[in-house]
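Bench notes, afternoon.
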Amino acid sequence: MARLSVVVPSFNEEQGLAAVLERVLAAGEEVRRQHPGITAVEVIVVDDGSTDATAAVAGAIRSVKLIRHDVNRGYGAALKTGFASAQGDYLAFLDADATYPPEMLPALVQPVLERRADVVVGARVSDPEGGMPRIRALGNWLFARLLSWVIEARVTDCASGIRVFPRSILADILDLPDGFNFIVAMSTVTMQKGLRVLEVPTPYFARVGQSKLRVMADGLAFLGSIVGVAISYNPLKFIGPLGIACIVAGVYLSIDPVLYYLHYRRVEDRELYRLITISVLAVSGLHIINFGLFSNAILAQSFGEAPDRRSLLGRLFLRSPVMRIGRVLGPTLCLGAVALNHRALIQYLTTGTIQEHWSYVLTGGSMFLVGLQLMMSGLLLRIVGVRTEKRRRMLGEISKADAAPTPADR
Protein backbone atom coordinates (compact mmCIF):
# COMPACT_ATOMS: atom_id res chain seq x y z
CA MET A 1 0.00 0.00 0.00
CA ALA A 2 1.24 3.47 -0.85
CA ARG A 3 0.64 7.12 -0.01
CA LEU A 4 0.47 10.20 -2.20
CA SER A 5 1.71 13.58 -0.97
CA VAL A 6 0.48 16.72 -2.76
CA VAL A 7 2.60 19.83 -2.17
CA VAL A 8 1.00 23.23 -2.79
CA PRO A 9 3.57 26.10 -2.69
CA SER A 10 1.85 29.37 -1.78
CA PHE A 11 2.89 33.01 -1.61
CA ASN A 12 0.19 35.62 -0.96
CA GLU A 13 -2.60 33.41 -2.31
CA GLU A 14 -5.33 34.18 0.27
CA GLN A 15 -7.93 34.95 -2.41
CA GLY A 16 -8.24 31.55 -4.00
CA LEU A 17 -6.35 29.18 -1.71
CA ALA A 18 -9.32 27.84 0.28
CA ALA A 19 -11.23 26.83 -2.84
CA VAL A 20 -8.13 25.25 -4.38
CA LEU A 21 -7.41 23.21 -1.25
CA GLU A 22 -10.99 21.94 -1.06
CA ARG A 23 -10.66 20.81 -4.68
CA VAL A 24 -7.30 19.17 -3.93
CA LEU A 25 -8.79 17.26 -0.99
CA ALA A 26 -11.69 16.11 -3.15
CA ALA A 27 -9.26 15.08 -5.89
CA GLY A 28 -7.30 13.12 -3.29
CA GLU A 29 -10.41 11.14 -2.41
CA GLU A 30 -10.95 10.48 -6.11
CA VAL A 31 -7.35 9.24 -6.41
CA ARG A 32 -8.01 6.75 -3.62
CA ARG A 33 -11.26 5.65 -5.23
CA GLN A 34 -9.79 5.14 -8.70
CA HIS A 35 -6.46 3.72 -7.53
CA PRO A 36 -6.90 1.32 -4.58
CA GLY A 37 -3.12 1.02 -4.33
CA ILE A 38 -3.09 4.55 -2.88
CA THR A 39 -4.39 4.21 0.67
CA ALA A 40 -3.81 7.78 1.87
CA VAL A 41 -3.36 11.24 0.40
CA GLU A 42 -1.74 14.05 2.37
CA VAL A 43 -1.95 17.69 1.32
CA ILE A 44 0.94 19.97 2.31
CA VAL A 45 0.80 23.75 1.95
CA VAL A 46 4.12 25.56 2.14
CA ASP A 47 3.55 29.24 2.94
CA ASP A 48 6.61 30.90 1.43
CA GLY A 49 6.77 33.99 3.65
CA SER A 50 3.37 35.39 2.70
CA THR A 51 2.40 38.84 3.99
CA ASP A 52 -1.34 38.24 3.67
CA ALA A 53 -3.66 35.68 5.28
CA THR A 54 -2.39 32.69 3.28
CA ALA A 55 -1.20 30.84 6.39
CA ALA A 56 -4.46 31.50 8.23
CA VAL A 57 -6.52 30.20 5.30
CA ALA A 58 -4.48 27.00 5.03
CA GLY A 59 -4.32 26.51 8.79
CA ALA A 60 -8.10 26.67 9.06
CA ILE A 61 -8.47 23.46 7.04
CA ARG A 62 -7.82 20.58 9.43
CA SER A 63 -6.94 18.03 6.74
CA VAL A 64 -4.12 20.22 5.42
CA LYS A 65 -0.57 20.18 6.78
CA LEU A 66 0.87 23.72 6.93
CA ILE A 67 4.58 24.57 6.79
CA ARG A 68 5.75 28.19 6.94
CA HIS A 69 8.86 30.00 5.74
CA ASP A 70 9.74 33.08 7.77
CA VAL A 71 10.79 34.89 4.59
CA ASN A 72 10.08 34.44 0.91
CA ARG A 73 12.67 31.92 -0.31
CA GLY A 74 11.28 31.14 -3.74
CA TYR A 75 8.99 28.71 -5.55
CA GLY A 76 11.59 25.96 -5.80
CA ALA A 77 12.58 26.33 -2.15
CA ALA A 78 8.93 25.97 -1.11
CA LEU A 79 8.60 22.79 -3.16
CA LYS A 80 11.75 21.30 -1.68
CA THR A 81 10.55 22.09 1.85
CA GLY A 82 7.29 20.31 1.07
CA PHE A 83 9.06 17.30 -0.41
CA ALA A 84 11.30 17.02 2.66
CA SER A 85 8.25 16.90 4.92
CA ALA A 86 6.17 14.61 2.70
CA GLN A 87 5.52 11.03 3.82
CA GLY A 88 4.22 9.76 0.50
CA ASP A 89 5.70 7.07 -1.72
CA TYR A 90 4.52 9.25 -4.61
CA LEU A 91 4.77 13.02 -4.78
CA ALA A 92 2.73 15.61 -6.63
CA PHE A 93 2.67 19.37 -6.73
CA LEU A 94 0.48 22.06 -8.21
CA ASP A 95 0.16 25.82 -7.93
CA ALA A 96 -2.18 27.49 -5.45
CA ASP A 97 -3.61 30.04 -7.90
CA ALA A 98 -6.33 27.83 -9.50
CA THR A 99 -4.59 27.77 -12.88
CA TYR A 100 -4.27 23.97 -12.77
CA PRO A 101 -7.33 21.82 -12.05
CA PRO A 102 -6.68 19.45 -9.12
CA GLU A 103 -9.25 17.16 -10.73
CA MET A 104 -6.46 16.06 -13.12
CA LEU A 105 -4.54 14.35 -10.31
CA PRO A 106 -6.12 10.88 -10.77
CA ALA A 107 -5.20 10.90 -14.47
CA LEU A 108 -1.67 12.12 -13.74
CA VAL A 109 -1.09 9.55 -11.00
CA GLN A 110 -2.12 6.57 -13.11
CA PRO A 111 0.91 6.34 -15.48
CA VAL A 112 3.30 6.52 -12.51
CA LEU A 113 1.46 3.77 -10.66
CA GLU A 114 1.48 1.64 -13.81
CA ARG A 115 5.24 2.28 -14.17
CA ARG A 116 4.72 3.73 -17.65
CA ALA A 117 6.49 6.94 -16.66
CA ASP A 118 8.93 8.27 -14.08
CA VAL A 119 7.51 11.79 -14.21
CA VAL A 120 4.05 12.81 -15.42
CA VAL A 121 3.66 16.45 -16.46
CA GLY A 122 0.34 18.21 -16.99
CA ALA A 123 1.03 19.84 -20.36
CA ARG A 124 -1.01 23.02 -20.41
CA VAL A 125 -3.89 23.50 -22.83
CA SER A 126 -4.97 27.11 -22.34
CA ASP A 127 -8.59 28.05 -21.70
CA PRO A 128 -9.69 30.12 -24.75
CA GLU A 129 -11.65 32.52 -22.52
CA GLY A 130 -8.68 33.43 -20.35
CA GLY A 131 -5.83 31.17 -19.46
CA MET A 132 -2.27 32.11 -20.28
CA PRO A 133 -1.29 35.64 -21.44
CA ARG A 134 0.08 35.67 -24.98
CA ILE A 135 3.56 36.82 -24.00
CA ARG A 136 3.87 33.91 -21.55
CA ALA A 137 2.46 31.48 -24.09
CA LEU A 138 5.09 32.63 -26.59
CA GLY A 139 7.84 32.31 -23.99
CA ASN A 140 6.75 28.82 -22.99
CA TRP A 141 6.63 27.77 -26.64
CA LEU A 142 10.17 29.05 -27.20
CA PHE A 143 11.49 27.33 -24.08
CA ALA A 144 9.80 24.07 -25.10
CA ARG A 145 11.41 24.29 -28.56
CA LEU A 146 14.81 25.01 -27.00
CA LEU A 147 14.54 22.05 -24.63
CA SER A 148 13.36 19.83 -27.48
CA TRP A 149 16.53 20.76 -29.38
CA VAL A 150 18.72 20.18 -26.35
CA ILE A 151 17.41 16.70 -25.53
CA GLU A 152 16.53 15.74 -29.12
CA ALA A 153 12.98 14.76 -28.15
CA ARG A 154 9.62 16.49 -28.48
CA VAL A 155 8.58 18.63 -25.49
CA THR A 156 5.35 20.64 -25.48
CA ASP A 157 5.49 22.17 -21.98
CA CYS A 158 8.66 22.44 -19.92
CA ALA A 159 7.28 24.89 -17.33
CA SER A 160 4.10 23.20 -16.15
CA GLY A 161 3.33 23.59 -12.45
CA ILE A 162 1.46 20.31 -11.97
CA ARG A 163 3.43 17.05 -11.87
CA VAL A 164 3.48 13.59 -10.30
CA PHE A 165 6.49 11.35 -9.69
CA PRO A 166 7.72 8.61 -7.33
CA ARG A 167 9.84 9.45 -4.30
CA SER A 168 12.69 7.44 -5.84
CA ILE A 169 13.65 10.31 -8.17
CA LEU A 170 13.65 12.94 -5.44
CA ALA A 171 17.44 12.89 -5.13
CA ASP A 172 17.70 13.95 -8.79
CA ILE A 173 15.85 17.23 -8.26
CA LEU A 174 16.74 18.45 -4.76
CA ASP A 175 19.77 20.42 -5.95
CA LEU A 176 17.76 22.47 -8.46
CA PRO A 177 17.23 26.26 -8.19
CA ASP A 178 15.06 27.82 -5.48
CA GLY A 179 13.20 30.20 -7.80
CA PHE A 180 10.47 29.84 -10.43
CA ASN A 181 13.04 28.28 -12.74
CA PHE A 182 12.93 25.12 -10.59
CA ILE A 183 10.31 23.57 -12.87
CA VAL A 184 12.22 24.30 -16.09
CA ALA A 185 15.41 22.94 -14.53
CA MET A 186 13.46 19.87 -13.38
CA SER A 187 12.27 19.22 -16.94
CA THR A 188 15.80 19.56 -18.27
CA VAL A 189 17.46 17.39 -15.61
CA THR A 190 14.92 14.56 -15.67
CA MET A 191 15.03 14.31 -19.45
CA GLN A 192 18.81 14.60 -19.66
CA LYS A 193 19.13 11.79 -17.11
CA GLY A 194 17.00 9.57 -19.29
CA LEU A 195 13.97 9.40 -17.00
CA ARG A 196 10.70 8.62 -18.74
CA VAL A 197 8.68 11.84 -18.86
CA LEU A 198 5.07 11.64 -20.00
CA GLU A 199 3.01 14.71 -20.87
CA VAL A 200 -0.75 14.61 -20.29
CA PRO A 201 -2.86 17.45 -21.77
CA THR A 202 -4.19 19.52 -18.88
CA PRO A 203 -6.54 22.54 -18.95
CA TYR A 204 -5.01 25.85 -17.89
CA PHE A 205 -7.13 28.71 -16.56
CA ALA A 206 -6.67 32.35 -15.62
CA ARG A 207 -5.20 32.66 -12.15
CA VAL A 208 -7.00 33.96 -9.07
CA GLY A 209 -5.20 37.00 -7.67
CA GLN A 210 -2.13 38.84 -8.90
CA SER A 211 0.63 37.01 -10.78
CA LYS A 212 4.05 36.79 -9.11
CA LEU A 213 5.83 35.90 -12.36
CA ARG A 214 8.23 38.55 -13.73
CA VAL A 215 8.20 37.94 -17.45
CA MET A 216 11.69 39.21 -18.30
CA ALA A 217 13.56 38.30 -15.12
CA ASP A 218 12.03 34.85 -14.74
CA GLY A 219 12.24 34.27 -18.49
CA LEU A 220 15.99 34.88 -18.37
CA ALA A 221 16.23 32.59 -15.34
CA PHE A 222 14.35 29.88 -17.27
CA LEU A 223 16.74 30.28 -20.20
CA GLY A 224 19.76 30.15 -17.92
CA SER A 225 18.48 26.98 -16.26
CA ILE A 226 17.95 25.17 -19.55
CA VAL A 227 21.33 26.19 -20.95
CA GLY A 228 23.20 25.65 -17.68
CA VAL A 229 21.81 22.18 -17.05
CA ALA A 230 22.16 21.18 -20.70
CA ILE A 231 25.82 22.22 -20.80
CA SER A 232 26.42 20.18 -17.65
CA TYR A 233 24.96 17.05 -19.27
CA ASN A 234 25.73 17.57 -22.97
CA PRO A 235 28.54 20.12 -23.55
CA LEU A 236 29.03 19.16 -27.19
CA LYS A 237 25.46 20.20 -27.97
CA PHE A 238 26.35 23.84 -27.33
CA ILE A 239 30.07 24.22 -27.95
CA GLY A 240 30.20 21.85 -30.93
CA PRO A 241 28.44 24.30 -33.28
CA LEU A 242 30.89 27.01 -32.18
CA GLY A 243 33.81 24.81 -33.19
CA ILE A 244 32.18 24.02 -36.53
CA ALA A 245 31.54 27.74 -37.09
CA CYS A 246 35.25 28.47 -36.53
CA ILE A 247 36.28 25.81 -39.04
CA VAL A 248 33.71 26.99 -41.60
CA ALA A 249 34.93 30.59 -41.20
CA GLY A 250 38.51 29.42 -41.71
CA VAL A 251 37.55 27.51 -44.87
CA TYR A 252 35.68 30.55 -46.19
CA LEU A 253 38.67 32.84 -45.62
CA SER A 254 40.99 30.36 -47.34
CA ILE A 255 39.07 30.28 -50.64
CA ASP A 256 40.66 33.38 -52.17
CA PRO A 257 44.28 32.55 -51.19
CA VAL A 258 43.90 28.98 -52.48
CA LEU A 259 42.44 30.11 -55.81
CA TYR A 260 45.16 32.75 -56.13
CA TYR A 261 47.88 30.17 -55.44
CA LEU A 262 46.43 27.69 -57.92
CA HIS A 263 46.42 30.39 -60.61
CA TYR A 264 49.73 32.18 -59.94
CA ARG A 265 51.65 29.52 -57.94
CA ARG A 266 52.67 31.99 -55.25
CA VAL A 267 51.47 33.47 -51.95
CA GLU A 268 51.66 37.24 -51.53
CA ASP A 269 53.03 38.78 -48.36
CA ARG A 270 49.80 40.75 -47.95
CA GLU A 271 48.06 37.45 -47.16
CA LEU A 272 50.13 36.88 -44.00
CA TYR A 273 47.52 38.06 -41.52
CA ARG A 274 44.69 36.32 -43.36
CA LEU A 275 46.58 33.01 -43.24
CA ILE A 276 47.38 33.46 -39.56
CA THR A 277 43.67 34.06 -38.93
CA ILE A 278 42.79 30.93 -40.92
CA SER A 279 45.26 28.90 -38.89
CA VAL A 280 43.91 30.19 -35.58
CA LEU A 281 40.30 29.51 -36.63
CA ALA A 282 41.06 25.97 -37.80
CA VAL A 283 43.06 25.00 -34.72
CA SER A 284 40.58 26.67 -32.36
CA GLY A 285 37.58 25.04 -34.02
CA LEU A 286 39.12 21.60 -33.79
CA HIS A 287 40.15 22.20 -30.19
CA ILE A 288 36.59 23.25 -29.25
CA ILE A 289 35.05 20.19 -30.92
CA ASN A 290 37.59 17.88 -29.28
CA PHE A 291 36.86 19.43 -25.89
CA GLY A 292 33.13 18.84 -26.39
CA LEU A 293 33.66 15.26 -27.54
CA PHE A 294 35.93 14.47 -24.62
CA SER A 295 33.53 16.13 -22.14
CA ASN A 296 30.61 14.12 -23.49
CA ALA A 297 32.65 10.93 -23.33
CA ILE A 298 33.57 11.58 -19.68
CA LEU A 299 29.93 12.36 -18.79
CA ALA A 300 28.75 9.27 -20.64
CA GLN A 301 31.15 7.15 -18.60
CA SER A 302 29.73 8.72 -15.43
CA PHE A 303 26.18 7.82 -16.46
CA GLY A 304 27.13 4.40 -17.81
CA GLU A 305 26.04 4.92 -21.40
CA ALA A 306 27.77 5.09 -24.77
CA PRO A 307 29.16 8.59 -25.49
CA ASP A 308 27.81 8.63 -29.04
CA ARG A 309 24.24 8.62 -27.72
CA ARG A 310 24.35 11.98 -26.00
CA SER A 311 24.51 14.31 -29.02
CA LEU A 312 23.94 14.40 -32.75
CA LEU A 313 27.50 15.67 -33.21
CA GLY A 314 28.73 12.96 -30.85
CA ARG A 315 26.96 10.28 -32.86
CA LEU A 316 28.56 11.71 -36.01
CA PHE A 317 32.13 12.14 -34.80
CA LEU A 318 32.36 9.13 -32.49
CA ARG A 319 31.23 6.48 -34.95
CA SER A 320 33.91 3.88 -35.65
CA PRO A 321 34.53 4.86 -39.32
CA VAL A 322 34.96 8.53 -38.41
CA MET A 323 37.25 7.64 -35.50
CA ARG A 324 39.38 5.48 -37.81
CA ILE A 325 39.66 8.34 -40.30
CA GLY A 326 40.77 10.63 -37.47
CA ARG A 327 43.41 8.16 -36.29
CA VAL A 328 44.82 7.96 -39.83
CA LEU A 329 44.47 11.66 -40.63
CA GLY A 330 46.35 12.81 -37.51
CA PRO A 331 49.68 11.09 -38.27
CA THR A 332 49.25 11.88 -41.98
CA LEU A 333 49.00 15.61 -41.26
CA CYS A 334 52.02 15.50 -38.95
CA LEU A 335 54.12 13.66 -41.54
CA GLY A 336 52.84 15.99 -44.25
CA ALA A 337 53.91 19.00 -42.17
CA VAL A 338 57.41 17.56 -41.79
CA ALA A 339 57.61 16.77 -45.51
CA LEU A 340 56.43 20.26 -46.45
CA ASN A 341 59.06 21.87 -44.23
CA HIS A 342 61.91 19.39 -44.50
CA ARG A 343 64.11 21.89 -46.32
CA ALA A 344 63.32 24.60 -43.76
CA LEU A 345 64.17 22.18 -40.96
CA ILE A 346 67.48 21.21 -42.58
CA GLN A 347 68.33 24.88 -43.16
CA TYR A 348 67.63 25.78 -39.57
CA LEU A 349 69.58 22.83 -38.15
CA THR A 350 72.62 23.47 -40.36
CA THR A 351 72.73 27.28 -40.60
CA GLY A 352 70.42 28.54 -37.87
CA THR A 353 68.37 30.42 -40.47
CA ILE A 354 65.37 29.63 -42.70
CA GLN A 355 65.35 30.68 -46.35
CA GLU A 356 62.00 29.12 -47.25
CA HIS A 357 58.95 31.33 -47.72
CA TRP A 358 56.98 32.00 -44.53
CA SER A 359 53.84 30.43 -46.00
CA TYR A 360 55.48 26.97 -45.89
CA VAL A 361 56.32 27.34 -42.21
CA LEU A 362 52.87 28.67 -41.31
CA THR A 363 51.03 25.99 -43.28
CA GLY A 364 53.23 23.19 -41.95
CA GLY A 365 52.93 24.42 -38.37
CA SER A 366 49.13 24.50 -38.64
CA MET A 367 49.05 21.02 -40.16
CA PHE A 368 51.25 19.66 -37.38
CA LEU A 369 49.11 21.21 -34.62
CA VAL A 370 45.90 19.85 -36.13
CA GLY A 371 47.42 16.41 -36.66
CA LEU A 372 48.83 16.24 -33.14
CA GLN A 373 45.48 17.28 -31.70
CA LEU A 374 43.69 14.59 -33.69
CA MET A 375 46.09 11.93 -32.47
CA MET A 376 45.92 12.94 -28.80
CA SER A 377 42.15 13.37 -28.73
CA GLY A 378 41.68 10.05 -30.53
CA LEU A 379 43.85 8.33 -27.92
CA LEU A 380 41.96 9.91 -25.02
CA LEU A 381 38.56 9.08 -26.50
CA ARG A 382 39.69 5.51 -27.11
CA ILE A 383 40.77 5.15 -23.47
CA VAL A 384 37.48 6.58 -22.20
CA GLY A 385 35.50 4.44 -24.65
CA VAL A 386 37.15 1.24 -23.44
CA ARG A 387 36.47 2.12 -19.80
CA THR A 388 32.86 3.08 -20.59
CA GLU A 389 32.25 -0.19 -22.41
CA LYS A 390 33.71 -2.18 -19.50
CA ARG A 391 31.47 -0.29 -17.07
CA ARG A 392 28.40 -0.93 -19.23
CA ARG A 393 29.15 -4.65 -19.38
CA MET A 394 29.70 -4.77 -15.63
CA LEU A 395 26.41 -2.97 -14.94
CA GLY A 396 24.65 -5.32 -17.36
CA GLU A 397 26.02 -8.37 -15.57
CA ILE A 398 24.95 -6.93 -12.21
CA SER A 399 21.44 -6.30 -13.56
CA LYS A 400 21.21 -9.86 -14.87
CA ALA A 401 22.40 -11.21 -11.53
CA ASP A 402 19.80 -9.14 -9.67
CA ALA A 403 17.06 -10.33 -12.02
CA ALA A 404 18.01 -14.01 -11.75
CA PRO A 405 15.71 -16.03 -9.46
CA THR A 406 17.17 -17.17 -6.16
CA PRO A 407 16.76 -20.73 -4.83
CA ALA A 408 14.08 -19.42 -2.48
CA ASP A 409 12.18 -17.97 -5.45
CA ARG A 410 12.27 -21.34 -7.21
